[in-house]
Amino acid sequence: DTGEVINPEGTRMQIEGCIIMGLGYALTEEIRFKGGRILDENFDTYEIPRFSWLPKIETVLVDNPEMPPQGCGEPAITTMGGVIANAVNDAIGVRMQMLPMTPARIKEALRKEQAASGSKNRSLPLSLS
User: Which PANTHER family does the annotation name (predicted)?
Assistant: First the structure.
């Protein structure tokens, strides 16, 4: 609830920017360490969301003039991990517990699930194969 929306375009931009940040945290962004040293010192190895792979984002604002204006971006960041994890679970039946949810981590989680259940009924989507 953003309360009263004073600047609709700015509010939309804030929410959409935070959704993009949340997608990065959920899918690609990770600082890797080796022996106490940061391995990802530049954007050639620290992958952030690219506009070329972002979905179309439609933001619907509900103006509530009865309430004072509120911050609106942070909820969009924090929900993306759960949204993506639930989508992965719905698609392949595996509950992801670690971010980012890279294809390699999804494959490994599926292998562990199959080994634990003794089943190989679920297959990977083509994009993860």
Answer: ALDEHYDE DEHYDROGENASE, BLL3820 PROTEIN
